[in-house]
Every structure is written in C-alpha cells, then in structure tokens.
Amino acid sequence: WALHLKNITISLSGQYECSFATYPYGTKAAKIQLIVKAEEEQHYVKKVQLNQTLEIPCLEDMTSENLSSYPLKWLVGENGRKEELVTKEPSCPAVYRNGSALYRQRVHLASNNTLKIFPTKITDDGRVFSCHVVYHPERVQKSSTTVRVFGK
Questions:
Q1: For the chain, where are the E strands, in sequence order?
Q2: Is residue 134 predicted with pLDDT exceeding 90?
C-alpha cells in the first residue's frame, strides 16, 4: 500500500497509520512519522557604487525585534560555492568567520542584523549574500541578495 499526498504543507506533518485486516491473522498496522520542512526564500538585487558601504537587510519585511530571538547566519556565494561570513545566536554576540581574506576586515553585522560591507570592491559584483533565519528546526527563512557593483 502507498499513501500519495499532494499540495504538501507543514500542517500535513504528523503520524500516519496504515491498518488492514487479514484472515486469519487479524489486524495489521504500520506507523510512519512525516515531517514536512518549510524553506522560504526571497531574492533581491542591490546596486552599489565601488568603494561605498553596502548594507543588506537580513529579511526585508521583518523587523529586527522579530529576528533577535532566532539564530541567523550570513553566507556569501559564487559559482555554487557558499561560505559562512557571520553567525548570530539569540542574546549572544556575532561570531565572524575569518575563512575569507576577501571579507575578513570588511564585514560587520549591525544591531538590526543588516550585513554591512565596506569598502565595496569590484570582486563583490555578482556575488550572492544570503541570510538564513532558523525559526524552528523544520522552518528556515532565507533572503538572498545579488550585488551589482558600479564604478564612478
């Protein structure tokens, strides 16, 4: 037997049971726990002048108060590769990852969880900065911003 579900939503998470009667052995049953994970992502493009300050809000439509009680992280990606820049746990200071020499001294996480990069460089052009907020182990909201850098 198979259970087919369509239009999957988080509300379908839960325990499912299949039971059937057999002769002469009686009722047989099997249970399965279904966990539906939600991942929401918003995409933006930000234009900035070379050598200026780039400010990228974590989630455009969320206030900093709503974000402060959840863990979040900022990543930068290019050519399918992602690198963690900074992580922030609730009620803790931000932790900067120093793996990238390209961003080591230029990245700052503002109190409202906005990522600030100064000065912008031509190598930032086309890079995708993404903020991940973990509301629940099965619910992550992401905001990705592609950066376009222009000369003066």
A1: 14-22, 26-34, 38-49, 54-56, 72-78, 81-88, 95-96, 107-109, 115-117, 128-136, 139-150
A2: no
